[in-house]
Amino acid sequence: MNISPSKEIILKKIRTALSHPVPIPFTGTEGNASVFAPPYDDLAVQFAEAFTKLEGKFVFCDNESSAVQKLMEISATNQWNKLFCKESHLKDIIHQSFPKFHFYE
Fold first, then answer.
1. Could you tell me which of 68, 73, 74, 69 has the C-alpha nearest to residue 87?
2. Minimal CA–CA distance to 81: which of 89, 71, 90?
3. Which range marks the domain in which residue 82 is found?
4. Smallest Cα–Cα separation from 101: which of 84, 82, 85, 87?
5. Tens digit of pLDDT for each residue in 36-68?
6. Is residue 6 scored above 80 in pLDDT?
7. Which of 6, 63, 64, 82 has the most CB atoms around its CB within 10 Å?
8. Is residue 77 part of a domain?
9. Is there a domain that residue 86 lies in?
């Protein structure tokens, strides 16, 4: 097998570098720490704050029945008679409590 002189020089330099390792210059930079900042508050609270900064209206409810009640208050205030809801479980809950509502498909 015929190896060119330039290839042999490069391989010799690689062998030498592997046999005499160089110390890592920045030893304190490697670690298992997360690169993301931990959330400063509950994610629901963070979402609500960000959403209201964008002038969105956010209502936090403890359970489904209070959510349905609040939805009905909002819909009465705004004179809504149709809702859009993708979740069939929520549609059933709303329809049981307030059968007059229609849903967009």
1. 68
2. 71
3. 63-105
4. 82
5. 877 778 888 889 999 999 999 888 888 888 888
6. yes
7. 64
8. yes
9. yes
Q: Is the pLDDT of residue 30 over 80?
A: no
Question: What does pLDDT average to over the chain?
Answer: 82
Is a pLDDT exceeding 90 seen at residue 72? no
State which H helix or E strand residue 83 sits in: strand 82-83
Q: Which contiguous run of DSSP H or E holds residue 66?
A: helix 64-78
Mean local confidence (pLDDT), 70-84: 85
Q: How far apart are CA 45 and CA 67, in angstroms?
A: 17
Give the number of domains in the chain: 1
Q: What is the pLDDT of residue 50?
A: 93
Does residue 87 sit within a domain?
yes
The two tokens of residue 18 are 């592997």
